[in-house]
């Protein structure tokens, strides 16, 4: 009996086992179907995967997509990366491939404006264009850009604000002339920045003395001879304040290497780079750039463990483990924000299109990791662009100085951005190339081998006059310039007396110039050359400085509009304003001043007419006018008074 029941039980088990397998397969198929029912959104990302910016963007976008996929049960993001190498044609090819093969619903990336418009033209050819979100924007926005590419959203730094920041840096150190360097990428991208920079410099009283356009270089093919040829033009100008507007990493690396070899990175020089270049620099550092100033868009770094930035930074350190660099840049934060905005737009579908959802989210202020932003005219603009000035020290870009805020200037703190807390040291405590303690002068200092050539116009002796060698001690007037010593006949420069180079010249301009030299705080080697009537006019002296035959003029040169365009004047030390020039007359002559308007002949004729008129009045009035009764003397006096007074007013008794 027991053996029979055991057999039945085994038989039932054999029947239940296939049913169990069938049940598991059935449920598994439904699970797979549920998984397949997730809405997939394909996103195409076109970046430069080999650059530091591209690597940060890729890591940030992957973090944002992974976080969304973990939290969403109905949607899934799939990122498709393509490498453009900043080449517009490769970017266009990648966009076509992504739309045709991967069926992407949005294209993001494009670090240059040339890539962005090329991809936008490709998308525009579709019957149903998809959104294009670019990390680049034109320097000067064309007025019809929205009509041509209504689907293009631009999310980039404010170039105009950057140029104003550079202008304030130049003004803080009183650099009146600068040298601008930028790379020719074949698309004229540096021209727009150059126009904005020229305007910013003009607003602070400075100007561009020289601009150098560099060829585009690569790591494998560096044309050192061409680079040296371009930089050799710097020797023809005195300015040593350099501004690098735009450049690729290989070009800017080669630029500083050659500039240092040629002596253009030293104690008298100053270098400024834009944010796009500062973000390209490798974390390993570039020691050739030590002392260079740059800027980075400031963003709120809330490092508390509960903040979104702290969580992102922790994930970023794991994903992007490049050396010891742990701080994501503004380009990484924008990449993360773009994916986050796309995920919010997806949640609004299918009631609206992705383009409409993106516009709706960005129409109001959206707060992301990179700051508060809003979509205006197709451009995603930060609420208030703020920059942190950086100083490259030891090849690193993590030496942060003061903040720069639009319409305010430099500030030590964002929370105290008021006049009370305005930075007294401007940019901050900069460590300069060659001389870490003293600010760079921004222009090449004269030497004994190449002294400063000064022109002395000797037209008016009160300002500049030549004196004999025997009377050279007359130049050392007591009390005129504190600390000034008597001058001997030596014409050598660099002796103990700072003005001993001028033993044969005197005058107000000479004495004032000597006082200025003593206040400089450093030695200024120079030589002087006389210029008089036989050489030419005042305008000729200005032309000689303009064409760089001479470096400066010491003398009585009047500030005129046509001269300001050619040379720079000091603050006028003699100012007349609106004046009236009159001759100096002795007191005894002032009593007869009324006779000066007319000559003696005119006064004789006037007196003769007066006497004649008096006689006529006397002859006509004596017979019939009782007022003329009396002595002959009284009659003549009355006739004379009547004639004289009639010149100034009419007697009412005799009006007709």
Explain what the structure shows.
- Residues 30-35 and 469-496 have low confidence and may be disordered.
- The chain has 656 residues and is α/β, with parallel strands linked by helices.
- Helix 12 crosses helix 13.
- The strands form 6 sheets. The protein has a 5-stranded parallel beta sheet, sandwiched between helices. Strands 7-6-8-9 form a 4-stranded parallel beta sheet, with helices on both faces.
- The protein contains 18 helices and 21 strands.
- The chain is elongated.
Helical proportion? 25-40%
The coarse silhouette is: elongated
Strand content: 15-25%
Kindly report the average pLDDT value.
78
Terminal Cα span: 170 Å
What radius of gyration results from the CA coordinates? 42 Å
Widest sheet, order of strands: 2-1-3-4-5
Structural class: alpha/beta
Count of runs of 4 or more consecutive helical residues: 18
User: Major sheet, described briefly?
Assistant: 5 strands, parallel
Report the strand count: 21
List low-pLDDT spans: 30-35, 469-496
């Amino acid at each position: 009996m027991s053996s029979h029941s055991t057999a039945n039980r085994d038989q039932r088990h054999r029947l239940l086992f296939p049913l169990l397998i069938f049940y598991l397969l059935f449920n598994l198929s439904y699970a797979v179907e549920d998984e397949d029912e997730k809405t997939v959104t394909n996103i195409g990302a076109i970046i430069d995967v080999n650059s530091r910016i591209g690597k940060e963007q890729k890591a940030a976008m992957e973090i944002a997509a992974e976080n969304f996929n973990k939290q969403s049960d109905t949607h899934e993001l799939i990122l498709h990366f393509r490498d453009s190498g900043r080449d517009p044609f490769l970017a266009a090819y990648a966009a076509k491939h992504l739309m045709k093969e991967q069926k992407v619903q949005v294209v993001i990336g494009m670090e240059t404006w040339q890539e962005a418009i090329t991809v936008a033209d490709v998308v525009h050819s579709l019957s149903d264009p998809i959104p294009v979100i670019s990390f680049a924007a034109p320097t000067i926005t064309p007025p019809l850009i929205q009509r041509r590419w209504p689907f293009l959203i631009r999310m980039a730094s404010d170039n105009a604000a950057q140029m104003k920041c550079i202008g304030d840096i130049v003004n803080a150190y009183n650099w009146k002339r600068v040298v601008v360097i930028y790379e020719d990428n074949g698309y004229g991208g540096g021209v727009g920045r150059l126009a904005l920079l020229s305007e910013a410099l003009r607003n602070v009283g400075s100007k561009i003395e020289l601009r150098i356009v560099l060829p585009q270089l690569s790591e494998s093919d560096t044309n050192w001879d061409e680079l040296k040829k371009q930089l050799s033009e710097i020797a023809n100008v005195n300015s040593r304040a350099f501004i690098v507007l735009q450049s690729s990493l290989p070009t800017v690396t080669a630029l500083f290497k050659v500039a240092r070899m040629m002596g253009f990175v030293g104690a008298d020089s100053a270098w400024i780079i834009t944010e796009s270049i500062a973000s390209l620099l490798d974390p390993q550092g570039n020691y050739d750039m030590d002392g260079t100033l740059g800027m980075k868009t400031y963003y709120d770094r809330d490092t508390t463990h509960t903040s979104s930035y702290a969580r992102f930074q922790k994930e970023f350190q794991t994903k992007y483990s490049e050396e010891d660099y742990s701080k994501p840049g503004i380009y990484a934060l924008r990449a993360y924000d773009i994916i986050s905005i796309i995920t919010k737009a997806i949640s609004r579908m299918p009631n609206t299109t992705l383009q409409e959802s993106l516009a709706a989210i960005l129409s109001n202020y959206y707060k992301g990791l990179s700051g508060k932003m809003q979509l205006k005219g197709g451009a995603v603009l930060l609420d208030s662009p703020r920059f942190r000035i950086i100083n490259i020290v030891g090849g690193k870009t993590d030496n942060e100085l003061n903040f720069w805020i639009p319409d305010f200037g430099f500030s030590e703190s964002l929370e105290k951005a008021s006049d009370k807390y305005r930075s007294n040291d401007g940019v901050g405590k900069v460590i300069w190339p060659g001389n870490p303690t003293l600010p760079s002068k921004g222009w090449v200092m004269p030497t004994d081998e190449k002294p400063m050539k000064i022109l002395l116009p000797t037209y008016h002796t009160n300002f500049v006059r030549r004196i004999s060698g025997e009377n050279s001690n007359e130049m050392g007037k007591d009390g005129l310039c504190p600390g000034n010593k008597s001058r001997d006949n030596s014409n050598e420069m660099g002796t103990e007396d700072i003005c001993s180079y001028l033993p044969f010249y005197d005058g107000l301009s000479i004495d004032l110039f000597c006082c200025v030299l003593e206040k400089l705080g450093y030695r200024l080697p120079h030589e002087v050359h006389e210029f008089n009537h036989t050489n030419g006019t005042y305008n000729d002296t200005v032309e000689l400085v303009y064409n760089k035959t001479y470096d400066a003029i010491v003398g009585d040169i009047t500030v005129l509009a046509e001269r300001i365009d050619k040379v720079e004047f000091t603050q006028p030390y003699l100012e007349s304003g609106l004046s009236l020039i009159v001759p100096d007359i002795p007191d005894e002559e002032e009593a007869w001043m009324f006779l000066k308007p007319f000559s003696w002949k005119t006064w004789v004729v006037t007196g003769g007419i007066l006497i004649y008129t008096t006689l006529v009045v006397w002859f006509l009035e004596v017979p019939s006018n009782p007022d003329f009764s009396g002595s002959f003397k009284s009659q003549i006096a009355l006739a004379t008074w009547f004639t004289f007074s009639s010149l100034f007013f009419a007697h009412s008794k005799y009006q007709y």
